[in-house]
Amino acid sequence: MNSTQPGSVGSWPLWQKILFRFFFIYFLLNIAPWEWLNRTLPGLNYVLQFYEKAMGWIIEFCNKTWFHFQQTTIVNNGSGDTSESWKAIFTYLVIAVTGTVIWSIADKKRASYHTANYWLRTFLRYFLILNCMVYGISKLYALQMPFPNQSQLATPLGDFLPMRLSWMFIGYSTPYQVFSGAMEVLAGLLLLNRKTITLGLFVGASVFINVMVLNLCYDIPVKIFSIHLVIYCFYLLANDAKRLVDLLVWNRSVAANTIHQNSLSKKWMRITRIVLKLAFIGLFVIVPFFSTREFYNSFNKPVSTKPIELGVYDVVVYAVNKDTLPALVSDTTRWRDMIFEKGGLGSVGSTDTSFRQRYRRGYFNLVTDTIRKTIGFKKTASSEKMLFTFRYGLPDSNTITLSGSRNRDSLYIVLKRSNRHFQLAEKQFHWISEANR
C-alpha cells in the first residue's frame, strides 16, 4: 500500500530502534489480535491451535526454568491476574527481549521504522477506543457496578474484601459511575479523530491511571490489564514527546501534530479507510450503545415477585427434626435471616456450605412452583441439581413458612418480614450539612 506520511523521514537513534522492536513484539504478543479473528476467518482456528500449543509449551518451559509459579488449575472466574496470566506476561517479556536481540542483529542497517510504528500506533489507538467504549458504555447505564443489593447491605462491612468494597462504593453513586463512564466514552470518541488524538490520549491516560490505581489499591484482579492500558497511552504519547515537552514544559511554539496522518495516494485506499472506520464505529460504538440500553431496560423491567415478596426476613423458628434451635450468636450454621432479591436471587445469613458462600453469607437461586407451592434452592443459576426443595406457606403478608427434608432431617422454618432499615439505600445527598455524619 503506497502512502505518504508526514514526518516519516530521518534516521532513528539506536536506542529508539531497540525500544520499538521490543514494544512491537511485546504488544502484539500481549494483545494477540489474531485471537479476535479465530471465529471469523475459516481455517484460522486450525492454524491457531498449533500456535496455542507452542505458546503453552514455551510458557511452561519459561516458568519451570525461571519464574517457578506453582501449577494451578485454570478456572474462568473473571480474574485477569491468575498465576497463568503472570506466567504469560513474564514469558512475553522474555520472548520480546530475545526477539529484540535477534531482530537488532538481523536488521542492524535499517535507519528507522516510521511505517511500522504508524501501524502499531494505529492498532494500539483502536484497541484503546474499543476498551473505552466497552467499559464506558456499561458505566453510562450504571451496569458495571450495580447499586448494592440488600444481601450486601446486610453484610457487616468488615466481612467484605477490598474489591467488593470498591465495587459498592462506585455502584452506590449512579452519577459518579455515569460520569466516569462518560469520560471513558469521551476519550474513545476523541481518539477516533486524528486531529484530537493527543487530547484523547490525555483524557484516556487520566481515566486509566485512576482505574489502575483503584485496582492496585483495592486488590481488584484486573491489575495486569489496567496497567497495560496505561502503558499503551504513554507509548502513544511518547511518540509525540518532544513536541509536548516544548509546548507544556518550555512554553514554546510548536507545529501541528502530523505523526498520525497517513496520506493515501489512491482513491480506493481512501474509500477503504472510510468504510473500515465507519464499520468500526457501527460495530463497536453504535451497536454496543443500543444493545447495552436494551439490556438496561430488561434489567430494570418490573418482575412479578409472587408468591414470595422481596425483602429481608428474620428466621424466627428453625426446627430440625422438630427440635427448635435457639438463635445463638456462636452458631454460624443456623439460618439467622433470609433475603429475597429480584431475579430469583437471594441469600441467607449463615456459613452453611451448601450455599454459595461469599462474605460469610450463603447465596442461592430460587425456583418456585406456585401450583405445588414449593420453593427449590439452587447453588447457582446454572446448577441442574437442587440443593433441597421446601413446601411454602403464607399465613399472612409478613410471614413465610418452609417445611421439608434435607440430608434425612426434617426442617420447619418460619420467616418473619423484618423492618430492618438500611440508611445507605436512601442515596442521601445534602447541599447543606450542619455536621459530619
Order of helices and strands: EHHHHHHHHHHEHEEEEEEEEEE
User: Could you describe the largest sheet, including whether it forms a barrel?
Assistant: 8 strands, antiparallel, barrel
Class by alpha and beta content: alpha+beta
Measured distance between first and last alpha carbons: 65 Å
SS element count, helices: 11
Helix content: 40-55%
Q: pLDDT average, as an integer?
A: 90
Order of strands across the widest beta sheet?
Answer: 3-5-6-8-9-10-11-12
Low-confidence stretches: 1-7
Percent in strands: 15-25%
Radius of gyration, in Å, reads 28 Å
Q: Please tally the β strands and state the result.
A: 12
Approximate shape: elongated
Q: Tell me the quaternary state.
A: single chain
